[in-house]
Amino acid sequence: NLRKRFLQLSGNEETISREHLDTIPALAENPIKAQIIEAFFDKRNQRGDEAGAFQEIGFEQFLMVMCHFRPPTLKMTAEEKEAMRKEKLRFLFNMHDTDNDGTITLEEYRKVVEELLSKSGAIGQETAEAIADAAMLEVASTNVPHMAPDEFYEGITFQHFEQILKGLEMESRMNIRFLDVDTTTMRCGRSTS
Amino acid sequence: MAVVRSSCGSSARLTAPTCVLLLLLFAFVSVASASRDDAPGGNNETGRAPPEDSHHHHQQTNSSTHHKKAFPVLSFNYEHVRQPFEISLWILLALLMKLGFHIIPRVSNVVPESCLLIVVGLLIGGIIKAIGEKAPMLDSKLFFLYLLPPIILDAGYFLPIRPFTENMGTILVFAVVGTLWNTFFVGGMMYAVCQIEGAQLGGVDLLSCLLFGSIISAVDPVAVLAVFEEIHINELLHILVFGESLLNDAVTVVLYHLFEEFSHADTVTVGDALLGVVCFFVVSLGGIMVGAIYGLLGAFTSRFTSHTRVIEPLFVFLYSYMAYLSAEVFHLSGIMSLIACGVMMRPYVEANISHKSYTTVKYFMKMWSSVSETLIFIFLGVSTVAGPHAWNWTFVIFTVILCLVSRVLGVIGLTYVINKFRIVKLTKKDQFIVAYGGLRGAIAFSLGFLLTNSQLKNMFLTAIITVIFFTVFVQGMTIRPLVELLAVKKKKESKRSINEEIHTQFLDHLLTGIEDICGHYGHHHWKDKLNRFNKAYVKRWLIAGERSTEPQLISFYNKMEMKQAMMLVESGSAAKLPAIVSSMQNIQPRGPARPRAIPSISKSREQEIRKILRANLQKTRQRLRSYSRHDLLIDPFEDGLSEVRFRRQRVEMERRMSHYLTVPANRQEIPSVRKVCFEPEHQVYTYDTDGESLRGRRASHSHPSASDAAGLVNESTRRPDQSGAAEPRAKVPDDQEDQDQLTLSRCLSDPGPNKDEEGGGSFLS
């Protein structure tokens, strides 16, 4: 049950802070631990229009973040599935776009790749940069094929992000199994109103 | 066989009449061979007189006579080579048939190849029978030991692991529970049918019915592969049906042996049934273990083959075949053993073996499995005509109906249960395809053939053949229009991009992290643990050299990069390089830090470049990434070739880099490659108006390497290729050489003192 887990993490308090999540032992091995934790505290994931970060989050916000990982049900229409996919992609986008300017710049993307490779042994920084560069280039060439040499590709916008990842079928992949499905869906539904 | 040779020569202009002629030829020759023995690999028949046949040259026997003859200048000794000759002939003519089908596109679009092959088999069998000779039957030993393993190995080795493991639960439920349900339902209902008066089936007891049920209920991997390959259905459904067909072998083996034993025994006790359950676990887990052991052995062996690259592919095949045979020795599930071996071996072997060996393994596997499949279907047709039949309307009709009904009911029922546990549920459409894709095939036939009870055997065989024909023909032919009609999702046809790869990995870690936060140990958690275990311990033992620590993203990236390099070189216009440089410019943040200015290029050139660039991007994006053997042989033949080339090129480049680099030896050369490639601080090449040829400045010191590389490329141009690309390449070998030097000089790192300039370049997806 998510509520029990929340209380367990927070030490029976009402809110949890970054330190609480930091101390989960299983997360230590995860190369993108910092980004994941940050995502919980990111205000952009809370369906408001605010930006910035919380210092502590309550159970509502915790659940809100978890909502992003619910799977599509059989009864969903195509539009609902599309909306869900956008929502999940938005979550990912927010994770990459740390300075909240609406685009993922080269620097940010480089950081992403670097973090991803951080636990894999001694990989040089140039490697990560090179991969990020190639990826960026691919996005640029996919979405803006007619670029003049003096144009500057500012960064990956959300539309471009959607475009390059549309092959991955996010709505089927970005899911985890919730043990208490009904509660979650109910709350997620309520929070949209 | 001069006639054969001449018709081969004209095969490029085959039309339907010529195909019929070919068919008749096949028939005649197989009659000739059939007249000599019963089965093509078969036993030596003695004392059969060869028929008077116009194809045979006049004979001069070598039989000893009592008076002295003149020394025979020309003699005819067919007996000497009969067996291999016949085998080769069958295979050759089967493949010619296959070739013929693809030359007539109209038919092959409507009818799946398997059906056509069965029809050919029927015709041949008919012709042979009409002539009065005994046609060869599909010998079970031949089938299980020689024809089936290549197909299963091909399937197992190239099994897409990710979707397979993600859907493992579903697949297992369908395979085990589904097959059990099918067996008992069909067996039980058939027994009930047999009790009906007037059907003359009173002699069929329950155990025989159950035995029959166990034979007929298993979905056949060969048939599924043959049909599903052509409809390009989405990955999930493909892996569900296909995985089920592979994994139900264990159930089939156990049930078959169980009922076979019971039908000889007089009484069946509960203890026997329990033993049966135990047997199931032993058979399946034992099979997997045997396969895994051989797989690990194979991986370990491949670690040491760096000095004898030529025999590397053989290890893969031999270890796998030994796994299959060893499992068969103990009556374990050979198919599961083979799959386990392939799956286990693949990641490590591929990291160890050379690129040529990798290609060899891939092509040989596809080749053998293709041949096997063709032969199986043809023999199925021939055996249908040849075999003793006992047609019983009631039995056969009810079998067909019951098979369908039980399959549908089974799938619906099981999906209802499975959907409670699945994250992404199976829709009605999915269920329909899974049910409809449950084809029966040659395994059922061979198992039926192995039955010992001869009075019922014929009737069973007839029914089995009818079911096989029904599923393969009716379901096989109609599944494609149905897929279109129901608008089932097709397989996405784009190549994996670097972004997708990054995000797949990112997602994996993200989901693992979320699961950890949620506190429950789900699918991702265990997968992550397995990966870490794999990296920490297993890879160290099984992968040679420094490749063992290479993370997956990097190796993926390497492959992609080299692929792009080769495609650029191959397509013959390095004019894209300036465009790439400019594009790089676009994403690099502007700043005062750029020391060297990049000379600009005129606008019209730009447009040309962009056009070519876009064209190439489109091309790359449309390459099919599929594991079907048809695609491998037919469509992106070029893809396979370029893969070969880039791997070769990569090996060459890596070797060159280790010569020319001035960096310390313990750093991986790969990072330095990329480092150079993304430096935008390089001058741009000027180039000609037509965009095809290139006048570039040669980097002087890279001459020896360039000539080698040019040799490589020239070598590759000699290989048969899609007609358009080969011609211009052959005409401009110099340009190729230039471009190759370009590629090399581009990718050589940290400029040494004698480098003039390099073309900056990065590689697009």
TrEMBL record, chain A:
Gene3D superfamilies: EF-hand. GO terms for molecular function: calcium ion binding; protein kinase inhibitor activity. InterPro entries: CHP3, EF-hand-dom_pair, EF_Hand_1_Ca_BS, EF_hand_dom. Keywords: Calcium, Cell membrane, Cell projection, Cytoplasm, Differentiation, Lipoprotein, Membrane, Metal-binding, Myristate, Nucleus, Protein kinase inhibitor. One of its GO terms (biological process) is cell differentiation. SMART domains: EFh. This is Calcineurin B homologous protein 3. It is found in: Cell projection, Lamellipodium; Cell projection, Ruffle membrane; Cytoplasm; Membrane. It is a lipid-anchor. Residues 84-119 form the EF-hand domain. Belongs to the calcineurin regulatory subunit family. CHP subfamily. GO terms for cellular component: cytoplasm; lamellipodium; nucleus; ruffle membrane. It holds the Pfam family EF-hand_1. It comes from Scophthalmus maximus.
